[in-house]
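User: Some background: our group keeps a shared notebook of sequences we're curious about, and every so often someone picks one and asks for a predicted structure to add to the entry. Today it's my turn. The entry only has the sequence so far, pasted here. Could you supply the structure so I can complete it?
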Amino acid sequence: MIDIVRRAFAKRNIQIEVAFMPFARALHDTQQGQYSGIIAIWHTAERTKHFWFSDCIYANRIVLFKRANEFNETSNLSELLDGQGTLGLVTGYAQAELLENSRFNKVSVATDGQVFSMLALKRVDLVPADLQNGLYHISKLPAEQKKVPLDWLAPTLEHKPMYLAFPKIRPDSLFLQQEFNLGLQALTDSGELTQILTTMPASY
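Assistant: Of course. Here's the predicted structure to add to the notebook entry:
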């Protein structure tokens, strides 16, 4: 996502700097105007009160990660989430209605790395995440935690379009939104966007 955003802005001769932080803080600080935009965000009605959204960059495939020896016979997510267990969530992330209405207990932490560590340590039972993002964080777990194999349920929870969002409080946000969209279209027309996305690993 960062590569795409950098290249899109570069098409318009705009250079950017990227800061890394927990999502909830990024969302809050950007909404307050401390940053020009927030990368890789989902569109919600609540967020439209505070942000202008770019054109869609690409869509996440959201799945439920689990320990490899559990929930193996599950094909109906609604039935599964009507049962008992604990969901591990990242604070500030928008969640599917199916998860919001689930009978599972819900535990929130600050980062993706923390929630996947909790899954490996058997402190939560399911973690909703983008497939590629989840596989990345699994690959970064400490060796001791990798002794517990993790995989994911085959049914996709949802496909979520990803955007770059600009805070309405900043006077340059509509300009940056327009410039990014033009740069993104240039990436699409040149075939660079497809090239970036097709080099993403399918699995680890």
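Suggested note for the entry: The mean pLDDT is 93. The CA atoms of residues 82 and 103 lie 5 Å apart.
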